[in-house]
Amino acid sequence: MSLVNAWTSQLLFVAMLLAVGCGGGGTEDPSDTVWLEPVAYPDLAGLEERVRDQLDSVHANLERVRAESEVTEAALGRAYGEAGMVYQAYNLHDTAASCYRNAARLEPDEFRWHYYLGHLHHDEGQEDDARVSLNRSLALRPGDIPATLLLARIEFESNRLDRAESLYRSILAAAAENPGALFGLGKTAVARKDYAVAVEHLEHARRRAPQATEIHYPLSLAYRGLGDAERALEHLEQRGDVPPPQDDPLLGVLVALAGGMRVHQLRGTALAQEGHYAEALTEFRRAVESDPDEPLVRINLALTWIEFGDFSAARRELNAALALAPDDAFAHYNLGTLEAQLGRDERAVEHLTAALRTDPNQRQARVNLANALHRLGRPAAALPHYRHAVESDPGNAAARLGEARALVAAGHHAEARRRLEEATAARPEDRALRHALIRVLAASPDAAVRDGRRAFELARSRATPQMSIEEVEMMAMVAAESRMFADAVRLQRQAVESARSVGRYDLVVALEENLQLYERREACRRPWRDPATGGGDADVPGLLRRIVAEADPDRNPFLNDRRAERLAAKVAEAAAGNARDGIEFELAHELLRAGDTRKAIELLESLIARLVAHGSSADAMLGVREVRALAYLRLGEQENCVARHGPDSCLLPIRPGAVHVRPDGSRRAAELYAELLENDPGNLGWRWLLNLAHMTLGGYPDDVPARWLIAPEAFRSEYELPRFANVATALGLDVNGLSGGSILEDFDGDGLLDVIVSAWGLDDSMHYFRNNGDGTFAERTEAAGLGGQRGGLNISHADYDNDGNPDVLVLRGGWLAADGEHPNSLLRNLGGGVFRDVTREAGLFSLHPTQAAAWADYDLDGNLDLFVGNENTPGKSHPSQLYLNNGDGTFSDVAAELGIRDLGFVKAAAWGDYNNDGWPDLYLSRYLQPNLLLRNEGPGEGGWRFTDVTAEAGVAEPKFSFPTWFFDYDNDGWLDLLVASFADFFGDSLEQVVAGYLGRPAEQHSRLYRNRGDGTFEDVTVEAGLDDMLLAMGANFGDLDNDGWLDCYFGTGLPRMNTLVPNRMYRNDRGLRFQDVTTAGGFGHLQKGHGIAFGDLDNDGDQDIYAVMGGAFSGDTFPNALFLNPGNENHWITLRLTGRRANRSAFGARIVVTVEGGTGTRRIHRTVGTGGSFGSSSLQQEIGLGDARAIRSIEIRWPTRDGFVQRIGPLPLDRFVEIDEGAEP
Fold this sequence. Notes:
Blueprint: H1 30-33, H2 49-67, H3 73-89, H4 93-106, H5 111-123, H6 127-140, H7 145-157, H8 161-174, H9 179-191, H10 195-208, H11 216-225, H12 229-237, H13 249-257, H14 260-273, H15 277-290, H16 295-308, H17 311-324, H18 329-341, H19 345-358, H20 363-375, H21 379-392, H22 397-409, H23 413-426, H24 431-443, H25 452-462, H26 469-481, H27 485-501, H28 505-519, H29 540-550, H30 560-573, H31 578-594, H32 597-613, H33 622-642, H34 664-679, H35 684-697, E1 725-726, H36 728-731, E2 736-737, E3 742-745, E4 754-757, E5 767-771, E6 777-779, E7 794-798, E8 807-811, E9 825-829, E10 835-837, E11 850-856, E12 865-870, E13 881-885, E14 891-893, H37 895-898, E15 906-912, E16 921-926, E17 932-940, E18 943-948, H38 950-953, E19 961-967, E20 976-981, H39 990-997, E21 1007-1011, E22 1017-1019, H40 1021-1024, E23 1032-1038, E24 1047-1052, E25 1064-1069, E26 1073-1076, H41 1078-1081, E27 1092-1095, E28 1104-1107, E29 1118-1119, E30 1121-1124, E31 1131-1138, E32 1150-1157, E33 1160-1167, E34 1181-1186, E35 1190-1197, E36 1205-1208, E37 1215-1220
Parallel strand pairs: 31-37
Antiparallel strand pairs: 1-30, 2-29, 3-4, 4-5, 5-6, 7-8, 8-9, 9-10, 11-12, 12-13, 13-14, 15-16, 16-17, 17-18, 19-20, 20-21, 21-22, 23-24, 24-25, 25-26, 27-28, 28-30, 31-34, 32-33, 32-35, 35-36
């Protein structure tokens, strides 16, 4: 998109008079008594002619004054100073500085020259010089507020907090409501971690200057320090770069001298047209500062942001322009075009329609609007706009092409051919129009329209050696229509391989559909793919590529590589001193998060050496020393647990086979944590990490100082479960990635469970591993059509279209707030484990941050519905969605109609019929809000509704919660509820976890709610032994030892790199309590556990466990784990249910298995589903039967409106059994 210079070129410059007085006190040349430095005349070649004229006149005037024989020192000083002002106004800093220094020598008592010189030094990063100049100015004018504010800012940035605070308070003594001083005091308090005082000052500043968005970031840090994560998140969302206003007449003079907003616009336009976008941004920002209420200024700033590649900033400025001028057609056009480029066609239609309302003659707006409507599947609505564009400009090839495609999509094939023939006759050289005609002639479904011979002649006459993917696809269509199927197959395979080679996986599946036609000797009868799903930025994979390209590291704290690059540039520009030290420390921390640990260590060591040389105390360097210790510990992980990954790597307690071969990192970390503990012996986090370091060195517990030892007894299991070996590496399933989701399911219908995993990195690929049935797996990601699916913090599966093939849902944007407006993906399984993205055509396309969704047939019509819980944040609405399955492959969002739309910040969702009335109820785990239980009332007289019964059921806690699920842990036929504890996502809760290992009570813990059977629940967490501080993220449940009681596995952690705590496994002891078997079973992985799925991967009758590892920061990757069940002596049965009236996969069916065993008759209860909210287990029901001697019966209550109950049996033990609804197995 090119910039449009929409403002007038006629600029009005402020007239400047350099008044030079003629004193009468002497004739001595001042330069003979005062040393004056030479002033180099700057290069004006890049400036606009009027500006050059202005500066030439300034220079000439200065030379004239200097040449006067009787000029006084004061007059010459003013001439130099006022010349410096003009040079500074145009950013000619070197020349301006020389002028100011001469002026200060000649007129030492003039406040202005010292003040302007201080500003100039500060802009150049010369803080020491700026401090000298500003102190001189304040000596001349004590208490000047602008000068004091700037000096206080410099002292703050140099970490001289006492001096900064003193200066800010001196301002408030004179002007008690000054927002700049209040803001400064607040930032100073944040730096001292005096968060209550910080909030007081910053909130006061915000009341005085509500438009100052710069206040929000330190305010968010202050609230986070107080533990108020909700307010912290609210202010983090509102952060910006608008500072508190400052009344500074002297700076206002500089702006006026440079012509204000118009001059900055002119400079910015010239720079942008030359491709100097960074410099153009600077000028346009200054134009906004000069006149923030001018919409045109913001539009041009937005267009420059687009050229610079920052689409989020562009959108922000265009919205600001529309807030100032709601009917501005130019702003609506550019915002609509931008939204279309980003795949947000609904918003594009809104803005482009508004543009045309104001200016109906905007031809390109009309074409863009038509294109967006066409992509949304509304070709009939698009046609009038295409036709209008063609009529107003018959030579508009894009409009003609769009019209033809819309005519085809609307079924008007003959008219499409006629219009294309007219267009190609008028523009025979236009390849796009000619190719469109060939497609219609070769592949129209209307036999009267097709003309294979003519298509062949046109294609042959215009063929070229180098063809695009689309052109090769077109040639294959022609060959197939001409019955040359061997050529069609060859060409189509070429198109498929080309698409795959350039990463266009979104095209591969569609191209392969045509390839299958040609292999069956059938011609194509669709000239174009559906524009909503067939490629380009409007489809979901294309939009995902766009999101990767436009991601802003200033808004997304997990783009650590990019953030480190920016900080490195700042370090290179910064002058030596405390400010640079701070940036270097920030850079080192960012490099650690990015995984560049050695470079982080080099920076930290250099920084510490420099601080020591400057006299900094050990206490003053505590933060730097802590990060250095963590960096060495992380280095040990990378060089051993990752680079030399083995089955026992990072499993707590560390076994001999996992002791580090390269010990340098952990050895140094142990030394450094011991030093830190000397400063703060009570720091439980450092104590924990010291013990870990010694474990990796093989010296635990003997080498750990006694006073800091965490005894081995702390890790002892409560039951001796056999060890589950981590076999992921041996089977090629050890994907090394970030946090993500996991699914175990039979996707290709061969009776074997396959594995699909995701990772949340914006450009991370999904992985699909097919189970070969011989103990090995083969990756089929690209062949399955999943190569274009990027990102995805969580994934789940369900057979939404009842075709017998499990489909996949990918959830994106969770935890990223405003930067998480990413599309989810619904991937339809076409059979055989090949998928197609049908998000748009299914009606599920939206742009909300989420990782929480749950499937259920809430209305029991035989079609699975979908709840998506989005992350609603203050100031930004992201309502949740309840998608009703229409039964035709599409969904309708009925959340608003049912009153469950505005549900807050949802972190997990689970369906379960807790009151046994047949209707699935919905439970929501929410972030920093009471959780919700919504009872499904069914189809009442007033329509379907859900009732909030949280209070009466008693299930609102914990406040810090994350994963959740319904399950019948005590086998009494009533679904119980587990809600796992978490913490502040951005905080540090390591010490709370360690306190639990030391026997201290947890500050917050999970909740196990036992269903009383009367609509209420009893909190039995403590009695059940689940009152540990878990930091649970991914979690799921299954039966480890086939005893018929459901056990739980929790993936734990936080984004912070120091949160190295074991994932936890709890064995269900006969429904009475849960026993920690983490150590015994080998489940205590120290890496950050996410998607967890239970399933019998080797069909031996017991459940294995797949767990996704890795954290949030881009360098915090780790190989995933697969824990292979060693087997046991208990019996089992695996059920594969197929619904007929019920949904095909029997989601929500209730199963009761009655067995005879050594202790008599026993009933085991299960519900068909995928388990917990973060990780998706197989839908086949793998049921442990304990010491059963026989299965007396199996009872299934199918999820139908009549509650059909099917009873079968007796059945043999240890079998796979397929059961069709209503039929005998």
